[in-house]
Write a structure and sequence with these properties.
The protein is of the alpha/beta class. The chain has helices at residues 3-6, 43-55, 68-71, 96-115, 126-147, 166-171, 190-193, 198-208, 219-232, 263-271, 273-286, 306-319, 341-361, 378-387, 402-410, 425-429, 441-453, 456-471, 475-488; strands spanning 17-20, 27-31, 34-38, 58-62, 77-80, 87-92, 155-159, 178-182, 213-216, 237-239, 244-247, 250-256, 292-297, 327-332, 369-372, 390-393, 417-421, 434-436, 493-494, 497-498. It starts with a helix and ends in a 7-residue tail after the last strand. The structure holds adenosine-5'-diphosphate-glucose. Adenosine-5'-diphosphate-glucose is lined by residues 41-42, 184-185, 259, 297-299, 332, 334, 375-376, 381, 398-403, 406.
Length: 505
């Protein structure tokens, strides 16, 4: 079955689709040989790109590549994929000040830490907020222009926390549009969300209520959002059981739609001969003579609990000297958002801790922690996951965590154990992992030891259970569930016109 077959029932091929996201699906960059095209790795692009190809929709995103302007027309439009042009990518140009204020500033220094309960990292500045609002306006203008190119009212699918204001900005200007949004990160409890300055707090909620449907990773995050609305907007009527907000004669639906991965593709990658060879090579290098291989894969982000993971390992090697040399930790952690102080500081902290651990416990034939501080392509990641005896995900808060799912998909031998923070969306959804509380270092260390000592039979039965659950909830199932819910959320009273849901089908 191809991707296209899988998606054939997700969305109506006749109705235009406009996707809005911060990152673009194809980025043109200058290179020694001229211009290269890059596509970000990750589930979102691989899930949405086939649909846009099929129905010739439009993707609106920030034109971030060094050759993006040169390859687009004067309105910022370029047909993609470049090798087989099928749909429009509409690029929005941002100035350096925009990137600083909207992206690095409000999105990543205010919303990101707040939603992940990292209150000390919160840096709220008026200038950042104003820029965030202005840039949401810029992207909304582009969406409205693109919507006007279609004859039918489009479906507009907004992605993530970069665009909390856009839905309300777009709504009044595109009558009949069906607008919905997927929020990839946690949504905090009302008591935390109200740390945002009053005007900002209410504006964010009203912006999000511009959607017809709002999709969160878990039921808990959806409930948090509803509580925020109930407390902040007395004129709104919240129904927790139905998952709806009634406001200004409109109904906004709110629900849980846990994101997943392209399971088929990860299984295919993990099954390739060359992946098996690379996995074998990794084991020969790091896990010979009965030594085990433990892996972790995450962006260098303070929400991922990297220092705590290193502290748990240190606890094991310090308190149980007999375990030194019995396992190697392969720590894949590419740099992320290094322009921001908390990230630069984290990077220094992790490098220092790894060096200290290796200096203290390493021997001539054993390096306790092998750090890969860079991007790794999906083939190599599949080999890392396949080679592992255990994978540790130690996020302190994480909307879902796709690494956990990628590990499961690649564990075709069913011999690896997933050690998973209970503060991930994935822990809410999956049964079979060893759940840990990364804030409690001693029990975190105990869980790693339990994973290392787990007998083959239990490893297999847990992994089998995880694999069965994952196969029943792939990225295609996620997309399908969202498209069905979006159809049900078609606005019925827009600009005074009563619309029949079937009119948009
Ligand atoms: P992230 O915080 O980026 O995503 P995650 O869900 O784990 O976290 O996704 C990371 C992705 O990056 C994975 O697909 C992984 O393979 C890839 N990756 C990690 N390290 C890499 C490396 N060294 N080289 C190349 N690729 C690497 C946000 C939210 C999550 C949510 C996702 C999707 O924070 O909670 O699951 O969006 O909604």
């Amino acid at each position: 079955m191809t991707d296209l077959d899988v998606h054939s029932d997700a969305g109506d091929p006749d109705r235009p689709l406009i996707v809005l996201s911060n990152r673009e699906p194809y980025e043109h960059v200058r290179s020694a040989s001229g211009t290269d095209v890059r596509s970000p790795a990750g589930g979102l692009v691989s899930a949405l790109d086939p649909i846009l190809r099929r129905i010739s929709g439009t993707w609106v995103a920030w034109g971030s590549g060094s050759a993006d302007r040169a390859t687009a027309d004067r309105d910022g439009r370029v047909m993609v994929p470049p090798a087989d042009p099928r749909y429009t990518l509409r690029r929005v140009w941002l100035s350096e000040q925009d990137v600083k204020g909207y992206y690095l500033g409000f999105a990543n220094s205010a919303l990101w830490p707040l939603c992940h309960l990292f209150i000390p990292h919160l840096d709220i500045r008026r200038m950042h907020w104003e820029r965030y609002r202005a840039v949401n306006g810029l992207f909304s203008d582009a969406v409205v222009e693109e919507a006007q190119r279609f004859d039918e009212p489009p479906m507009i699918w907004v992605q993530d926390y970069h665009f909390a204001l856009a839905p309300a900005m777009i709504r009044t200007r595109v009558p009949g549009a069906l607008i919905h949004q997927f929020w990839h990160i946690p949504f905090p409890p009302a008591d935390v969300f109200r740390i945002m300055p009053l005007g900002v707090h209410d504006a964010l909620l009203r912006g999000l209520l511009g959607n017809d449907l709002l999709e969160f990773q878990t039921a808990g995050y959806a409930r948090n959002f509803l509580e925020c609305v109930e407390r902040a907007l007395p004129e709104a009527s919240v129904d927790y059981d139905a998952g709806t907000v009634e406001l200004e004669e409109r109904t906004v639906r709110v629900g849980a739609f846990p994101i997943s991965i392209d399971v088929h593709e990860w299984e295919r990658l993990a099954g390739l001969d060359r992946t098996i060879d690379v996995a074998k090579g990794l084991r020969e290098r790091y896990a010979q003579d009965g030594r085990q291989l433990v892996v972790s894969v995450d962006r260098m982000d303070y929400t991922k609990g990297l220092p705590r993971r290193l502290r748990a390992l240190e606890t094991i090697w310090r308190t149980q000297p007999e375990r030194r040399g019995t396992f190697t930790m392969l720590f894949v952690a590419p740099p992320s958002r290094s322009d921001l102080a908390p990230y630069a500081q984290l990077e220094r902290d992790v490098l220092r801790r790894v060096a200290a651990l290796n200096a203290r416990y390493g021997t001539d034939d054993w390096t306790p922690v092998v750090l890969i501080h860079g991007n790794v392509d999906a083939d190599l990641l599949a080999a890392v996951y396949r080679a592992a005896d255990a994978c540790i995900v130690s996020s302190l808060q994480d909307g879902m965590n796709l690494v956990a799912k990628e590990f499961i998909a690649c564990q075709q031998d069913r011999s690896g154990v997933l050690v998973l923070s209970r503060f991930t969306g994935a822990a809410d959804e999956l049964e079979g992992a060893l759940l840990v509380n990364p804030f409690f270092i001693d029990s975190f260390a105990d869980a790693i030891v339990t994973a290392l000592d787990m007998p083959p039979g239990e490893r297999e039965s847990r992994m089998q259970a995880l694999r069965t659950q994952l196969r029943g909830a792939t990225i295609d199932d996620w997309l399908h569930a969202i498209m069905v819910a979006a159809e049900e959320a078609v606005p019925r009273h827009v600009a005074g016109v009563a619309l029949d849901a079937t009119a948009l089908r």
